[in-house]
Structures are given as C-alpha cells and as structure tokens.
Amino acid sequence: MRHSFYQRTDWLSFWITSGVVLSVYLFTLAPEVTLEWSGIYATGAMYGGISPPPGFPLWNFYGWLFIHILPFSNIAWRLAVSSAVAGALACGMVALLVSRGSALVLETMKGFRRLPAKEERWLRLVAGFAAGAGFGFNGAFWGEALIVDIVALDLAVFLLVLCFLLRWVYEPEQSRYLYAAFLLYGLNISVSLSMVAAAPGLPFIVLFHKPALGRDLFFTMAAATGAVLLEHGLRFNPVALETVIHYEDLSAVFIPVGIGAALISMGASIATRRLLTEKKIIFICGVMLLLGLSIYLILPIVSMTNPPCNWAYPRTSEGFVHLISRGQFEHWNPTRELDRYVQQIGLYWEQVNNDVGFIYLLPGLLPFYFLRKMGRPERGWMMGLTATFLCLSLFMVAMLNPSPDRQTMGLTQLYLIPSYLILMLWAGYGLVLLGTLVARKEEVPGGHLYSVANSLDQIS
Fold first, then answer.
1. Residue 395 gets which letter from DSSP?
2. Which of 45, 152, 173, 457 suits a disulfide with 86, CB 3.0-4.6 Å?
3. In this structure, is residue 1 part of a structural domain?
4. Interatomic CA distance for residues 201 and 427, integer angstroms
C-alpha cells in the first residue's frame, strides 16, 4: 500500500497552526481600509480591475472571490480576511514543512538515538507549531496579514512551491511535483515580482538531488542570460526590452548571475561527463513557468472593460510594458560599493533580530552542526534552502540598495519577509533536534546537561 508523503502528524501540525493563527488574525483584523496601497488594491479587486504595477492579476482574482464569498461587512474588511486566511495557511505550511522535514532528518541521522515514536510525533507537532506561529506573529508579517495587501498570498504561494519541491526531493523520478513547483513559482511572480530574487537559489535544491537535471537547469539559466546580453549588443528591439530590463544594471546583476550559472553548469558537466541529457524535463519546466506567468495576459483583456481601477491602461502595448515593468517606479540600482554593502548586511541582521528575534535564530544553527550526519537528500535540502535564503536576503539587500540607516531598512522590511521563512524552517528543525537531545534520559550521573553534552560527543 502506498503511504502518503505528508503524514498525519504533519497535517495535524498544519491545521492546528493555521487555526490558531487565523483566530488571532481575525480578532486583530483591520476593520476598515488602511493607509498606503490598501484603497487602490480594494478597488482593483472589487471591480476586477488593474491594480498598481505590475497589476497583480492573481491577487485581484483571489480578493474578488472573498468579496463575493463573504456577504457582509465592508469591502476592505473582506479583503483583510483574505489576507488573514492566506497568512494563516502560510504559517500552517511552515509547520507542515518543519514536521515532515524534521522527521526525514531524524530517520537518516547517523548515530543519533531517537525518541519513542509517540514522543517524537508530539515533538514534531509542537516544533512545527512554534515555527509556524513564530513566523505568523513576528514583527513584520503579522501587520501585513491583517490588511488589504498582497504579502500574505505571496508567501503562501511561495511556501506551496517549497512543499512541492520537498515532495519531489524524495521521489525525483516523479517529475510532476517539479512541474507543479515551476507552475506555482510562475504564479508566485505574478503576485510579487520581488520573488524573482529567489530564482538563482531554488535550482540548487534540484542540483543537490539530481545533479544532471540541476546542471541542465543552470545551463538554461546561463543561456537565457546570455541571450539577453546578446540582444542588447545587437540592439534587437531595444526600445521595448530596454524598458523592462534596464540594461544599465547588466554589469551589476545579469552578468554575475549568468557567469555564476555557467560556472556551476560547467562544473556539474565535468562531474557528470554529460550535458543536456534532461532536455525534455527542462522544456516542460519552462512551459509550466511560462504558463504561470501567462496570467499577466489577462490584464489587457480586463483593461478593455474600462474598470474604475485601470492602471497604465495595459490594453495598449505601451501601457502593458509600462505596467509589468513597474515603469512609474525607480529602476533597480544595485549596490556597487563593498563598504556600503557591508553596512547594509549589518542593518539587515539588526532588522532580523527585531522582527524574528534571536530566540528563534539560535536553534536555527543546530541543524548545520549535524549537517554531515544527515542523509544525502536531507543535506541537499538544507543546502538548497541555504542558497535560496542567501538570494532572498543578501542578494535582495544588494538589489534594494537601501540607504545605510535604520529608517530606510524599515521601509524595505516588506521585501525581506520571505527570507524569514527560511530562518523559521531552520529554527523548527533545530527545535526538534534540541528537544530530542534534552528529552533523552541517559543513565549516567550529571542530569540533562551532562546528557546533552555526552550525546553531542558521541555523534561528533
């Protein structure tokens, strides 16, 4: 009989976390429209219109559903409920990934004595809840999940991507999970363009589990970057692409990413002595990614209905490019000075400490202590998450290039929240490992502290 990958304990952790977080969110929900973009977002969702750049077609549809599902109260409150639901589900998926991932880590840990099955299930459930609720009630995400905003849905879709990637990691021959992850990532970008920052990191999850596929994936990334550079050199259709890509920043972003992808592909090609043996899977993954992104094509059609919120009038080609390229906003201006970048990294970690807290960061270090003791899939998952975290944190900081002061970092806080997800996953895994070490009773004098120290010595 085929067993479900996500087990009963994992789903129990998911539902308990989602339920508790949603209850708190609904109790603290914003009763009316709030400041910044909430009013225009509400108008776009209410009339199925075009929200501010880049249009947010998936969020508009999601919000429109809640407006019509909930037959009472004002529009802003209904949309705030949609944010609360998406935020609670995101927290539940953090708990799900922690519960399942920690079980897989414990199953393959060499020389690590586990707890009895019942106690371990309870530990996974509690650790998953602690990680999920810790993320849901941190200083950055809680406020975004109570108002009319895209952040909660953005992170919920991104966590779905990670759920499917974890499922694929343990059955790489089942490519449908990988295809689903690519489709969802395309939809994720339609919710928030800032999630493009995760693109250089996510392929590492594939590389560490199926080197041939990861090799071809990085080769495709390098080829795509090279095509952009070649287009710029040949000046082929420069006007349209210049608006979207902003070539003045090629030297700071596209070239390093392209070179890095090419070097990784080259190294993997030498190791595997092959190249492009996974063309079919790469092609289907590309199609699924474009299928997810194709939701943007609904914007010109919606614009033709002339809704009250019709930002940039994307029914014209010029308006469409202006909308999806966020033409009205300042172009990306990545950090180029090393000393400035070092200051920005320091401020990022200060922001993490304020929003998440070191009480969660410290357990997150424990899984890396046991990294060499983990099985190959678990070690690859951890390293893939590390690459993704670096893209969502250090790479994102470089792209945002905030002024090196706390006030500006506070304004960019919104773009840093996805990196907190990875930190909370590590914290959850660390809590399970720490709980296992503390709960084991060694039959030696000295109590728990001696027991933990002796256990660490035994498996080192």
1. I
2. 152
3. no
4. 20
Contact 429, 101 (CB under 8 A): yes
Which structural domain range is residue 148 located in?
8-459
Residue 277: its H or E element: none
| Structure-token match 């129990």, residue found | 12
Asked whether residue 364 is assigned to any structural domain, the reply reads yes
pLDDT at 249: 55
Question: ∠ at Cα 157 (344, 78), nearest 5°?
Answer: 100
pLDDT in tens, 55-86: 889 999 999 999 999 988 899 999 999 999 99
Per-residue b/e over 259-289, b at no fewer than 16 CB within 10 Å? Answer: eebbebbeebbeeeeebeebeebbeebeebb
210 close to 171: Cβ distance less than 8 angstroms: no
Q: What is the pLDDT of residue 445?
A: 42
The answer to whether the CB of 79 falls within 8 A of the CB of 66 is yes
Q: What share of the chain is helix, strand, coil (3-state, %, to 5)?
A: 75, 0, 25
Under-50 pLDDT residues of the chain: 1, 238-241, 442-453, 455-460
The answer for residues whose C-beta is within 8 angstroms of residue 157's C-beta and 6 or more apart is 58, 184, 187, 188, 191
pTM, two decimal places: 0.90
Q: What's the pLDDT score for residue 236?
A: 53
Number of domains within the chain: 1
